[in-house]
Amino acid sequence: MAPVKGNIVKRTRLSPAERRAQLVDLGVQLLAERPLEQISVEEIADQAGVSRGLLFHYFASKHDFHVELVRHTSRDMLERTAPDESLEPMDMLRGTIVAYVDYVTDHRDTYLSMLRGTASGDPDMRQVFEDTRTAMVERTVAHLPRIGIDAGPAVALAVRGWIAFVEDTTIAWLRDPQLSREEFVDLAVAALPALALAAGGPSVTFGRSNRPDVTFGHDAGT
């Protein structure tokens, strides 16, 4: 494997927390350049200026190190896509989707590697993905009342389906972008109220306006 570009870090004394953070940061940098399974702990140790044995002082195994890289990346994605509560409800929802699409576009190879690569079949990795999806569901459900949706159990379940829909269609769009970015964002945003209606909640129709029209499921077709 070709060496990573850049200079090897001169070994310095760091606190345990700082050293662990350094190792993770180096791993995340490599994750932007290659699939997860191609990240070598030997290379990370060399870049950090520490021994391979010291790396395993912080991580029990290469697998544990890789899981932490995925966990770190997932946390970063959640932070970057956090809803801006200063916006109008529809703009807040759209802004979150735009941030998500931009994030996975900027980290395309990392995103595809984690969700469709060999790591996606690992139970520990799947748990990280599931925890991330759950966090996305919970924060979406928490904001639904702002757009006129009563987030009961059926709607909450529909939101989980919407998260899966956005995730899967984003992967398909990255691989074959037949829609423009704006068209894809429109599709992802519009799918949420559509699923809410199917779950028995209100139907929220909107375009680029800040004022959604809200009609309730049993009345929507009358």
Automatic annotation (TrEMBL):
UniProt-recorded Gene Ontology molecular function terms: DNA-binding transcription factor activity; transcription cis-regulatory region binding
SUPFAM superfamilies: Homeodomain-like (SSF46689), Tetracyclin repressor-like, C-terminal domain (SSF48498)
Top-level taxonomic group: Bacteria
Keywords per UniProt: DNA-binding, Transcription, Transcription regulation
Designated name of the protein: TetR family transcriptional regulator
One Pfam assignment: TetR_N
DNA-binding region: 40-59
HTH tetR-type domain: residues covered: 17-77
InterPro entries in alphabetical order: DesT_TetR_C, Homeodomain-like_sf, HTH-type_TetR-like_transc_reg, HTH_TetR, Tet_transcr_reg_TetR-rel_C_sf
